[in-house]
Amino acid sequence: xxxxxxxxxxxxxxxxxxxxxxxxxxxxxxxxxxxxxxxxxxxxxxxxxxxxxxxxxxxxxxxxxxxxxxxxxxxxxxxxxxxxxxxxxxxxxxxxxxxxxxxxxxxxxxxxxxxxxxxxxxxxxxxxxxxxxxxxxxxxxxxxxxxxxxxxxxxxxxxxxxxxxxxxxxxxxxxxxxxxxxxxxxxxxxxxxxxxxxxxxxxxxxxxxxxxxxxxxxxxxxxxxxxxxxxxxxxxxxxxxxxxxxxxxxxxxxxxxxxxxxxxxxxxxxxxxxxxxxxxxxxxxxxxxxxxxxxxxxxxxxxxxxxxxxxxxxxxxxxxxxxxxxxxxxxxxxxxxxxxxxxxxxxxxxxxxxxxxxxxxxxxxxxxxxxxxxxxxxxxxxxxxxxxxxxxxxxxxxxxxxxxxxxxxxxxxxxxxxxxxxxxxxxxxxxxxxxxxxxxxxxxxxxxxxxxxxxxxxxxxxxxxxxxxxxxxxxxxxxxxxxxxxxxxxxxxxxxxxxxxxxxxxxxxx
Amino acid sequence: xxxxxxxxxxxxxxxxxxxxxxxxxxxxxxxxxxxxxxxxxxxxxxxxxxxxxxxxxxxxxxxxxxxxxxxxxxxxxxxxxxxxxxxxxxxxxxxxxxxxxxxxxxxxxxxxxxxxxxxxxxxxxxxxxxxxxxxxxxxxxxxxxxxxxxxxxxxxxxxxxxxxxxxxxxxxxxxxxxxxxxxxxxxxxxxxxxxxxxxxxxxxxxxxxxxxxxxxxxxxxxxxxxxxxxxxxxxxxxxxxxxxxxxxxxxxxxxxxxxxxxxxxxxxxxxxxxxxxxxxxxxxxxxxxxxxxxxxxxxxxxxxxxxxxxxxxxxxxxxxxxxxxxxxxxxxxxxxxxxxxxxxxxxxxxxxxxxxxxxxxxxxxxxxxxxxxxxxxxxxxxxxxxxxxxxxxxxxxxxxxxxxxxxxxxxxxxxxxxxxxxxxxxxxxxxxxxxxxxxxxxxxxxxxxxxxxxxxxxxxxxxxxxxxxxxxxxxxxxxxxxxxxxxxxxxxxxxxxxxxxxxxxxxxxx
Lengths: 510, 510
Known about the structure:
The structure is a homodimer of 510-residue chains. Chain A starts with a helix and ends in a 16-residue tail after the last helix. With 510 residues, chain A is α/β, with parallel strands linked by helices. In chain A, the strands form seven sheets. An eight-stranded parallel beta sheet of chain A has the order 1-10-9-6-2-3-4-5, sandwiched between helices. In chain A, strands 11-15-20-24-25 form a five-stranded mixed beta sheet, with helices on both faces. In chain A, strands 12-13-14 form a three-stranded parallel beta sheet, with helices on one face. The first copy, chain A, has 18 helices and 25 strands. The interface between A and B is large, with 84 and 84 residues.
């Protein structure tokens, strides 16, 4: 096995066990890892470290930098043992999220395209350890990544020491799927030469300075991917609304006939929206995106995909099996790039990517909250939604019109946290319909969003807010400062956003 | 005169007077004009149209699209006569602003780099008339723009008819200063080949389809530029704080020794900050920016400028005289590009532009309001601040720590309108100091901003809000939903944000 996976003989001497490798990690260090949405992250050494800390009770606080979210074996075991002092840029793990929300983990929520830049510009602390999963090491000592690329090329370049986890559950057929290109820092940066989503511009491996490799561990722990919710009625309606919108845009000559490359965010709604394209009339679909979920395999099986460019493969457990079992077929259609490239404003704007992301809530003026529930509780992070939204050809946000069994309206007078401003958001899709905000003034945007997207249970309340704020004639954006966040206040007090819920907590209606 | 200014003889037959040209503009039309921050906008025809409407009382409602702000002769006379039905993307004129804030003008506040795209993607209505100022027309019928480029190349390409104002107050020596390059629409877009701020990649003229030229008017009305406030103590302190920060960044190896191209927003504070560089140790300064104000001439005179790339020259009245009188010297250092290029994410990120913009208010978590006072009253618009901020090497926002004689704190618990999110804002500069937010969590950001940037009169109030919101232990971002906007409410009620102002309007302190 080892000879196929570790082809450089000199490096065989670096092979050790996870415990020994974990001893390289010391209190106070900055550890950067591979992994992007629980795919291709290190698993054995993080678990060994957590066990060690649990057993010895030693002090261990680390700054953990990843590409995006990683699995239980890293975020989970470390958060439970109190190992994570500081964390960026994105996460989806329960214990890690709890730590962030109770304040024990200092979290910086960042655009994913900025992470490698922050590291290579020197904006973050020096990286002591790069801890990365690989499918193999080449004869030259270079790295073949596994199911994600993320920030791995940058941290391999910048870290003091490198620990590699060779993961034998990751098929060797992954070799050749990656395209590694890292831009230089300004003032020496050149144009990124991607003209089409299918262009390969780099190497199929990550160059490594062999001298920095401190340990190699062999493991077979599979990516602990997350389940995807079944496509349900609501998500099907959203997908249908979106596809109708795109078809109309093509009819009206605003999008080229063969579409443009699509980006689709992470999660069940995004997956369902893409799944809706299987039944659509679109052919030769291009994806220029950051994650590949199950629906992309459906699209490939339906013969509808020209290319899927991404930085990670993040299907469900069943989807991952399906990928492994048909890897020779799927790999022909997939390119995995560093997240600095998959999420790069330059390429996204050049290709004219159609950005499809999901919102926690949207306000009537078109601002979007993607991150903090009730303005405070971190869900996952902004991820790549900002990278794509701001630079896209058309930016779309999808959300179910209500949540918590109807007790939360996802359309609100004012977002409680703002990740995407009115200047960046063009199309809102709910199961109710589609609001096209392009070229509208705030008052028009409000009417479009309430009319087309709000849940019927909340329309009256939203119109009431809008009309009363308009009657104040105060300025360009109608706002009632004392009521703008009152829907969230009401939910916090009564568990229900509806205007007639908890009457005595309502303000300003007199 | 005409032969130097209108070198294509055939086009001499199109010369007419402003009134006749104005007859081409009809009720309900979409009119797009040249002009970017009151420079290079049409003046004679707009005035003639306003006079005509005033005299005849005829119905005249137009959709007005410009590059950015334009002068009184256009926004002012048209707003006064109620001619502007709809307006985008940016303005600074009092009557126009009043119309927007009272709701009689439907205003869409857009990123300036998006305007040409919206037009060429077909997202806005068909442009009936392109009304553009030029310094001259070449023998081939091509246009030599004047003191700005803005969206002129795009609207010349897309409009049904073209009206040209040859402005003889604009020196012929402007010829050669412009660099006209327009990207194709996706999927045919190529890399923009600017590698250095001084690269010229296009033509010195705007190609024109002569058949579309419907009228040519000759005028000598000067750009009605805006005065710049004298550099005062407060702005000098801000400039000093910023320069100290940049020098320290260079010492710490985070910015290259010879800096990186600078962008500086429009207005007196931005002008003062750049003026501060005259006394700095920096040499060979590059600007990759959207406006050139007086301070750039100071820097050129001091021998400190390698190149100033922009889309407009927007000095004060005295600055404009100074430019005209020394044009052969200044033009060697200046390139004027279309705003789709000057503000392009691709180029900004590649060059590593250091973005310096001004804020109306900043909240303790690092969100910035650039547009709407008290969340409602439109000031000017977001302009290019988002284009530069999001894609910059380092994004800096400067603001005086208080306004209205101390009655407004520009550092607030929550911004009343959000143009630049916590994910985009890295450095806050006030006359009090500099807060470096890179890599910090929300709680740390809050302490940095209050400590370093807030006005002493407001520090206790901000800390009080922060500590009480932290004590709720609700989540990642400490927030008191019922108090977050209470400072703005208090100002609206009492004219003062201070916590002890209008005690009975304060909530949630019990």
